[in-house]
Amino acid sequence: MATAQKPRITLDGLAPLLDLDQLDDTPPREEPPRMALDLIDEDPNQPRQEFDSATLQELADSIKASGGVKSPVSLRPHPTVPGRYMLNFGARRLRASRLLGLPDIPYFIDRQVDSFDQVIENEQRDGLKPMELALFIKARLAEGMSQQEIAQRLGKSKALVSQATALIDPPDCLMDAYRSGRLRGLTDAYELRKLHRDYPEAVEQWTAAQKEITRPVINRFRAELEAPAVQSEPAPVAVQTAHAQPPAPTAQLEKAAYTPPFKAAPAPVAAGQTAKPAGAVLVLVGDYKGQPLELDLSAKPPTNGHIYGRRPGSPRRLTVPAAEVKLVGFAAE
């Protein structure tokens, strides 16, 4: 007896009854909502305050070429104006969209964001400028936070936070160099600020003359300011007496005695006083900012109108304005 064959079942006849798209378990991608640009205000306290026009135009060109802003900006309801929104993140995308004249931008709402979140977001996308970071740290310090706490919240080292403080209320010469683009690095600003603390006038004159201020240039300038004094002795000078004498032989001139700078002749010793050691060298002493300063005349400082000097007992040589030094007298070394 022949075995009956089972009919073959195919999907061809079922195709009209099936929606094959339903077999894909991937949820459809929802487009983010869009907010009219006219309803968005930038946060006046947000860390990013510097916007380069050239890079902003490059971003606008990129948005135009890609068909619009792809990454939504972060907003929160405006704290004081109902119906408006404050920008959390995305200032560059917002400004580039306005440059292009776009009517709206994709967004999402985040009510929990704080200023530290704004810094971290900006650092991840396009690092903050040194001054922006310094102003943010200044505001947090004014709120009572320590540098260590700020560093921990930002996920950065305490050393970097300390360096950023160099641009908090900086001297005019540093601010001018930064604003003009001659001083860019955070570490460079920190090192120059330290030099300005010890050599204010010299740093101001030097900074004004530099076309570009980099770390190697600062290091060379520091070496000039802090170079140890070079002790030099004057060449022997033959002294003629009132009676003309024939020139002394060269060998005798080489042995002639001479007086080193500020070397005093032995002075009479009054009764009850101790005589100073023979050959004591006197040092010219001045008063600088209310403190004694031993003047060093062995070399010329790199900045005109300045003079080298040391605080008594200190090996560190300072460069100070000569006009601010009041001569006091001599002291024996």
Question: Would you mind describing this structure in some detail?
Answer:
The structure is a single chain. By secondary structure, the chain is of the alpha+beta class. Among the domains are: about 35-130, Conserved hypothetical protein from pyrococcus furiosus pfu- 392566-001, ParB domain; about 170-225; about 280-333, KorB, C-terminal domain (SH3 type barrels, Roll). The chain has helices spanning about 55-65, 90-100, 115-125, 130-140, 145-155, 160-165, 170-180, 185-200, 200-210, 215-225, 250-255, and strands spanning about 35, 40, 75, 85-90, 105-110, 280-290, 290-295, 305-310, 320, 325-330. The strands form two sheets. It has a five-stranded mixed sheet with strand order 1-5-3-4-2. The chain has a five-stranded antiparallel sheet with strand order 9-8-7-6-10. A hairpin with a 7-residue loop joins β8 and β9 (about 320).
